[in-house]
Amino acid sequence: MATPVENRYPLFDPAQTEQFMPTAFRPVSAHPRHIRLAERIVEAAVAGDWPAGARVIEQELSRGLGVSRTPVRAALSLLVQHGVVRVRPNRGHILARSGAELAGFRLPSPASPEMILHDALISDRLAGRIGPEFAQSALARRYRTGLAVVQRALARLEEEGLVSRTGWRWSFVPSLDTEQSRRTSYELRLMLEPPSLLVPGFRAERAVLEQLVEEHTTLAARPEMAQEDPARVFALDARFHETLATWSGNLFVLSMVRQQNTLRRLLGLGSYADRARVAVWCREHMAILSAIAADDMAMAARLMHRHLMHAAAAAEHSLALAGAATRPVRARRRRV
Description:
The protein is mainly α. Helices cover 58% and strands 6% of the residues. A 3-stranded antiparallel β-sheet has the order 1-3-2. Strands 4-6-5 form a 3-stranded antiparallel β-sheet. α6 packs across α7 and α9 (206-221) runs antiparallel to α13.
């Protein structure tokens, strides 16, 4: 007889759940006032066109924003966490990105109970702490929360294409943590993304295209961003592919591209800290955008196909390296 899900794994104290989450999924534990104050600091940087490297001084911010230094310090701490501000020895806080780059920047809101559960479910599934199938009631007991919170978390996961429902039971979709799953993922993307550039209804928005070109140009000029802020680099990669899917006018293509991006995001950001790999796909993205700007959609489709083939080869290589790193090394038997 199968052991019930709630007994097969140890129960977690909800207050301790965060320690089991990858950094990428940890909610922002900040007061809404501190988040708003951090955004006001960013708005000041944008309005004043502050250059990257400009000193960010607590006392001046306190005076300019009309608040004490304690909340300013908390807001700066948030901005450090999100790569907007850096701390330099003997210089204090400095701006990591220029005011122009920060236009439109927003910090995430404090995590709701369902988002904390949403992220914990993803983390625990990837770590093997929960099985591929489960019931709502079992999750409510395991995480010591209400059914309403569980239902909202599962609804979001379902919307993201990460779980499916059969009757009263739910199951996770296959992840991308095996060679076969990654290969089939890229096969799907090759079937979808290059042809979507050739549909008659494809319409690129000039302003958005120019913004993408500008962001890729910035990344190409500052390859160190890959190591400083891999989450931001991933966001640009994902936005590139989702924007092109949006321009196809096909909601099914967009839905599948978003799902694939979500699955890729779940694996972590290790490859997005690889400066060499990021430099390659950045150039490839810019070539595709250039072809779209020139209305040469046949070339854009060929370049997208080549880009995905390169990405698939790089993913296969990284998976092989990871497997080799975890494979036990056999000692050679010495002859006597």
